[in-house]
Design goal:
The structure holds 2 protein chains of 2 kinds.
Chain A (H helix, E strand, L loop, with lengths): L12 H7 L5 E4 L4 E7 L4 H8 L9 E3 L4 E6 L2 E6 L4 H11 L5 E5 L5 E6 L3 H6 L16 E6 L2 E9 L3 E6 L1 H15 L14
Antiparallel strand pairs in A: 1-7, 2-5, 2-6, 3-4, 4-5, 7-10, 8-9, 9-10
Helix pairs in contact in A: 2-3
Chain B lengths: L12 E10 L2 E7 L3 H7 L6 E2 L6 E2 L12 E4 L6 E5 L9 E5 L25 H4 L7 H14 L12 E14 L3 H12 L4 E4 L15 E2 L2 E2 H13 L4 E4 L2 E7 L3 E7 L13 E15 L3 E3 L12 E3 H11 L7 E5 L3 H11 L6 E4 L6 H9 L3 E4 L1 E7 L6 E8 L2 E10 L2 E5 L2 E3 L2 H5 L3 E5 L4 E6 L4 E3 L9 H20 L10 E2 L23 E3 L4 E2 H9 L5 H8 L12 H12 L3 H4 L13 H5 L16 H6 L3 E5 L2 E6 L7 H14 L2 E4 L4 E6 L3 H6 L14 E7 L5 E11 L2 E6 L4 H14 L7 E4 L4 E7 L3 H8 L15 E6 L2 E6 L8 E7 L3 H12 L5 E2 L2 H10 L39 H4 L4 E8 L11 E3 L10 E11 L4 E9 L8 E8 L3 E10 L14
Parallel strand pairs in B: 1-7, 8-9, 8-15, 9-12, 15-28, 17-24, 18-19, 18-24, 19-20, 34-44
Antiparallel strand pairs in B: 1-2, 3-4, 5-6, 5-7, 10-11, 10-29, 13-14, 14-15, 16-25, 21-22, 22-23, 26-27, 30-31, 32-33, 34-40, 35-38, 35-39, 36-37, 37-38, 40-43, 41-42, 42-43, 45-48, 45-50, 46-47, 47-48, 49-50
Helix pairs in contact in B: 4-5, 4-10, 6-7, 7-8, 11-13, 17-22, 20-21
The chains are: A alpha+beta, B alpha+beta.
């Protein structure tokens, strides 16, 4: 059967591409599998091993390239992985963590990811988000939960370009994408002419 | 000299003339001018009329404290009222006009108020316009508003963009004058993150007009080079044209950056006109400088009377002479510097009048060397010239009286200096302690909250070398606090050496020997006599005097007059200044546009909107949407030219008669897992949950601790240790928080985890007698009979080839199914249901039809029938409330008040006229004739027209309602056409449709 899945950002792909430029680019992440993992502290190392990454430290993520474990709370991670591996991964937890108290819930449709990248990506984020994203305070490997343009979001930084991934509830995704497109617009314009030179 | 433009000097670009208009006349200035400097250069003396007396007024200052030169800037949608001409950078084509003038600037009819002024004393509107009753609102207030109003707000939408930005720093420096630059440079050298905000177009503050040198460079050049070097550092943010509006606790500051205001309107499409900066800094240094204080004498508001520092600024920075024959009047040394600057610019002052008997030796010699007469120990007693100064009279000063003979000085400019007030406004907002500084006759900061420092003139340090040293030290302190090091660079050296200050002579006006008005607050036309009158009338608190006289209540917030007000009040009450104190400082420091505060949260981006995965289908079906929290839900789906009532009636008939479909994806969903999940949920719901078998659903209600209904929904048991909980659309987040709060704080021993899965699932509700037929087409192999698939059960199945959770629940009373699929399949499932239902006329229905259908069945709705004061028993759910288990709120249900039998209870209402619709929220009474007061016995919670019942009906909460079935109550309503009316209605059992429940199995 043809893929009948659709995301809320499908219709905005062209708008996001049109808004992107040298200064900053915006796009939807390809749909990924997501598992909301909650577990008692004792089972976390086992869970990370079963998942295939390290145990994420507070406000950081651990990734092996294909999979990432995002720290959301002392007993809560968001696991990001290929869509096709969600069921087998949950099954692996059931085996590896038998007897432990945990909950691994498939939330693959629970959030959509946006990627914002480029030299002005931080400036766009600073128009949208209260938290300190200066390289001294936030860098690659870090995760934060905050609001972006008043939308609850999980934010992580992938690299120093910088590249941010923003995970939001799909219901908010169009609003947030439109907000970011709007916030990016000035970086495609000629700068404001300066004051009368004196 | 051409007009008032000096032949040389100033930082304007004389090769770039810029045309502009003021009051309809073409004028010309240069690039680098402000509107104010260009107006002065063009010889414009009168720029507006005062607020109350409509006296002609000229430009008074050169900065944000300007009280008089308020203009209407731009036209059409770009028109902006009450802009200070001193703060407007000139651009080609600028259009400005005066405010508060009628019919014209030169002839103002309101000037008659000057002759009525004995009636217009402090508090006149409290005293004069007392009767007849109703006249204030209908006659006096509109007339006064017309007379006293200032600029006009534009009535078109603002075409400009505004946005916000957040920046974090170790240090915020407010002001890029000598102190601020020294502070920022010292701090940045240690490598900490610095934000430097300055309201000028160029950094430098007072250095832009100073003749001093710093580190061997001219002051302005040193400032420009220092700011450029700071701007080039990666961890320093230099914000010019940026005014800090407010300082708040924990290092939070709000500033507004004027990004395109120096360019013509509309010249920078796509760029934000203004940006509001939210700065969060570990430490803040306020180096906001100081404001010069006027001197009090009769006629001190006439056009041509200006602050002496402003006169110097216009001469040195803009190459503009504010007059051709100036007289300086001062009680301190600073006017000497200005007078020398003017003399050196080729405009020798007629005289310098120093109130002090002994002038400063070096400065007066320098002035005398330039041929300027110094009149020591004199004071102005009169100003000649109404629309422009023509001369002043001076006499010898003896205390607060005058002696000796009158001397007239012919002049066209009176440059005054009454001393300098540190700009303590931002410090005051944070409740810094201010103390009266006797030597400078002003308030200066004494105690500062942690993390806040002050440097330079804002702290009462007025010498250049002192400002630089204080700024440098404050910057080093900040870097040491942030990094643990500092003191790496020497203090920048200044030259020439400054003369030691000759003490200022405090002067608060003459007690006698002077006629005419001496103004304290130029913008609000408050005179020294008004303050004295207020004191005589018993106003002792400076806060009361401010409000009674309106001193300091204009758009300038009394930046010039407040200290004088305090001084006059203190003198009138014979008490020390410090005891009188200041009024409260509040943000914003200068006026700010509402558009800037709103930022990009306007129009389509006003507030986040939540839409379901099926939203595009609803848009295509021309749905009218309703806000449910942040969700956009289809309210109804009008076809052709249907109005709402017809569309809802059609949708209801479809569900009752055939089949309808609804997007139920917005319902909150929580997966609760763990060995203690059943025990956990049992503690929340009023009805038993633990007894639920796997594969079954149960409707449940939750209360808060007070026993009042909080949320409701369906609980499904997925496995012995797994439950799937639905909540109301608006309640999803608070129910999850409620679960987490109790788990984390009270019951950490329970092994349970709650996970939000609201958006993991999209849900299509299929309701109506033909719904089973629709499902049968989607899953032909399944047995969907009532026997095989019972009401209130669910199963995980494949529907139209998609994995789905199918539940037999009903919110309409009809046979109904809810199909839930992964969110990304929502649209595909909607399409599949629509296609399968087409032969049965399946009809999409919205929230309004859903409400009608549920109300016909007497199903309450959280937020409609409940308002935080309604118990489950009030709603008629006493049979649901568990007797044997405990749950949150249970004990509260046995309180005297919650257990009494005559509480307001849920019933239905049937209006006697079946066509009359009761208003939701209408109060209900027992008597047919309205009287005041009369006891209210309840209120209408939901009211609809029912196609199934062929009449209107309502749900209501009525005192002791269940015992009153069949009785009549009355709703006093007001209708636009019919006026006041009483609608009678009969109380009925809440379930009006299919009370036996026979329809739910189809």
């Amino acid at each position: 059967m043809a893929d009948r899945h659709a995301t809320m950002l499908d219709g905005l792909a062209a708008d996001m591409a049109a808004a992107s430029g040298e200064a900053v680019t915006l796009g939807a992440l390809p749909p990924v599998g997501q598992i909301t993992f909650r577990g008692e502290p004792a089972c976390l190392p086992l869970a990370a091993a079963a998942f295939g990454t390290g145990v994420p430290a507070v406000n950081r993520f651990e990734s092996d390239g294909a999979r990432a474990a995002l720290w959301l709370g002392p007993d809560e991670w968001l696991l990001v992985l290929p869509r096709a591996e969600v069921a087998t991964t949950i099954a692996r937890f059931d085996m590896a963590l038998a007897g432990a108290h945990f909950a691994a819930v498939d939330t693959s449709a629970g959030r959509l990811g946006l990627e914002l990248s480029g030299p002005m990506a931080r400036a766009v984020m600073e128009k949208s988000c209260h938290i300190d994203l200066h390289p001294r305070a936030f860098g690659p490997g870090q995760v934060a939960q905050s609001t972006v343009a008043r939308v609850p979001a999980i934010l992580l930084q992938r690299d120093g370009r910088p590249t941010y991934w923003i995970f939001v509830r799909p219901s908010f995704a169009q609003y947030l994408a439109r907000w970011l497109i709007d916030a990016m617009a000035e970086y495609r314009l000629a700068p404001i002419a300066g004051p009368a030179p004196t | 000299m051409t007009g008032y433009r000096l032949p040389a000097g100033g930082a304007v670009d004389r090769t770039r003339p810029l045309g502009f208009t003021f009051d309809g006349r073409d004028r010309s200035g240069f690039a680098g001018d402000t509107l104010a400097s260009a107006l002065i250069a063009a010889g414009v003396r009168v720029v507006g009329r005062s607020f109350k007396y409509h006296r002609p007024r000229g430009i008074y200052s050169a900065g944000p404290e300007e009280p008089s030169a308020l203009v209407q800037l731009g036209r059409g949608p770009w028109s902006e009222p009450n802009v200070r001409a001193t703060q407007v950078d000139l651009y080609a084509g600028l259009e400005a006009s005066p405010v508060n003038v009628w019919p014209s600037l030169r002839f103002d009819a309101g000037a008659i108020n000057q002759f009525l002024s004995p009636l217009l004393v402090a508090g006149f509107y409290y005293k004069t316009f007392l009767g007849p009753r109703g006249w204030w609102r209908r006659v006096y207030e509109p007339a006064i508003r017309r007379m006293a109003g200032m600029g006009k707000a534009p009535d078109e939408p603002d075409p400009d963009l505004y946005d916000h930005a957040h920046v974090h720093a170790d240090l915020l420096v407010v002001g890029a004058g000598p102190a601020g630059l020294a502070a920022a440079r010292a701090a940045a050298a240690a490598g900490i993150r610095v934000v430097l905000a300055d309201d000028g177009a160029q950094a430098g503050g007072d250095l832009l007009t100073s003749s001093a040198t710093i580190e061997g460079r001219p002051g302005a050049a040193w400032a420009a080079e220092t700011a450029a070097a700071l701007g080039a550092m990666s961890d320093v943010t230099v914000l010019s044209r940026t005014t800090v509006l407010g300082l708040y606790d924990h290092g939070y500051a709000v500033a507004v950056e004027r990004r395109t205001d120096h360019r013509p309107p509309g010249a920078c499409p796509g760029h934000a006109r203004q940006r509001v900066w939210h700065v969060r800094a570990a430490r803040t240094i306020v180096a906001a400088g100081s404001h010069e204080r006027p001197l009090l004498f009769a006629g001190n508001d006439r056009p041509g009377v200006m602050l002496s520092g402003a006169v110097r600024t216009y001469a040195r920075r803009f190459g503009v002479a504010c007059g051709r024959s100036p007289v300086f009047v001062t009680n301190n040394d600073s006017a000497y510097v200005a007078a020398i600057a003017l003399a050196d610019a080729g405009v020798p002052p007629v005289a310098l009048v120093d109130l002090r008997p002994v002038p400063p030796p070096a400065a007066s010699k320098a002035l005398a060397d330039r041929g300027v007469e110094i009149l020591a120990g004199r004071v102005p007693v009169a100003v000649h010239g109404r629309a422009g100064v023509r001369g002043i009279d001076v006499r010898a000063l003896d205390g607060d009286r005058t002696t000796g003979s009158l001397r007239r000085l012919e002049c066209d400019l009176v440059a005054v200096s009454g001393g300098w007030n540190p700009a303590v406004h931002l410090l005051g907002q944070l409740r810094a302690g201010l103390t009266w500084d006797e030597a400078h006759a002003t308030f200066r900061p004494e105690t500062l909250p942690a993390g806040l420092a002050v440097a330079g003139a804002a702290g009462g340090t007025f010498s250049l070398a002192g400002c630089i040293a204080a700024g440098h030290a404050a910057g080093e302190d900040a870097s040491a606090a942030a990094r643990g090091r500092g003191g790496r660079r020497p203090v920048p050296a200044t030259a020439p050496e400054e003369e030691a200050e000759t003490p200022l002579l405090p002067f608060w006006g003459l007690s006698q020997g002077s006629r005419g008005k001496a103004f304290v607050d130029l913008q609000n036309d408050v005179t020294a006599a008004d303050i004295a009158l207020a004191a005589r009338e018993g106003f002792h608190s400076v806060e009361h005097v401010k409000r009674y006289t309106t001193s300091g209540m204009g758009t300038d917030q009394g930046k010039l007059g407040n200290v004088t007000t305090v001084a006059l009040l203190s003198r009138a009450l014979a008490r020390p200044m410090g005891e009188t104190g200041t009024t409260t400082y509040r943000a914003p420091y200068v006026p700010v546009a509402y558009g800037a505060l709103a930022g990009r949260h306007v129009g389509a981006l006003f507030d986040p909107e939540r839409i379901t995965p099926i939203h595009a289908r609803h848009v295509a079906a021309h749905a009218v949407f309703e806000n449910v929290g942040q969700w956009k839900r289809p309210h109804y789906f009008p076809r052709n030219a249907e109005d709402m009532a017809r569309a809802v009636e059609r949708e209801c008939r479809a569900v009752r008669g055939a089949v309808g479909m609804m997007d139920a994806s917005t319902l909150g969903k929580i997966e609760v897992r763990g060995p203690d999940a059943a025990r956990f949920l049992d503690r929340f719901y009023v009805n038993p949950i633990a007894s639920l078998v796997v594969g079954a659903c149960r409707y449940g209600v939750m209360c808060r601790e007070d026993g009042m209904v909080f949320d409701d929904g369906v609980v499904m048991r997925l496995a012995p240790d797994r439950f799937f909980v639905t909540t109301t659309t608006g309640g999803a987040a608070r129910v999850l928080d409620w679960f987490e709060e109790w788990h984390q704080t009270e019951w950490p021993e329970l092994k349970v985890f709650s996970t939000s899965v609201t958006e993991q699932w999209a849900t299509v509700a299929v309701a109506g007698p033909r719904s089973r037929d629709v499902l049968a087409r989607l899953m032909p192999e399944a047995d969907l009979s009532a026997a095989a698939f019972a009401f209130m059960t669910f199963r995980d199945v494949t529907v139209a080839g998609m994995p789905a959770r199918l539940a037999r629940v009903s919110f309409s009373g009809e046979l109904a199914f809810e199909i839930s699929v992964e969110g990304t399949l929502g649209e595909a499932m909607w399409d599949a249901v629509a296609e399968a239902g087409a032969p049965f006329g399946i009809t999409p229905y919205g929230t309004e039809a859903m409400h009608v259908l549920r109300a016909e069945k007497g199903f309450f709705m959280v937020g409609h029938e409940t308002d935080g004061t309604v118990t489950p028993i009030d709603l008629g759910l006493e049979r649901m409330v568990a007797k044997r288990k405990d749950f949150l709120g249970k004990r509260s249900l046995s309180r005297d008040d919650t257990a009494r039998s005559d509480r307001k209870q849920l019933v239905a209402l049937l209006p006697d006229d079946p066509g009359t619709l009761l208003d939701e929220g209408a109060q209900l009474v027992d008597e047919a004739v309205l009287r005041t007061p009369m006891p209210m016995v309840g209120h209408v919670t939901s009211s609809y027209r029912s196609a199934a019942l062929g009449r209107t009906f309502a749900l209501a909460l009525i005192r002791n309602g269940r015992a009153r079935i069949g009785e009549r109550v009355y709703a006093p309503l007001v209708r636009p056409a019919a006026g006041e009316m009483m609608v009678s209605a009969v109380i009925a059992e809440p379930v009006l449709y299919d009370p036996s429940g026979a329809r739910r199995d189809g």
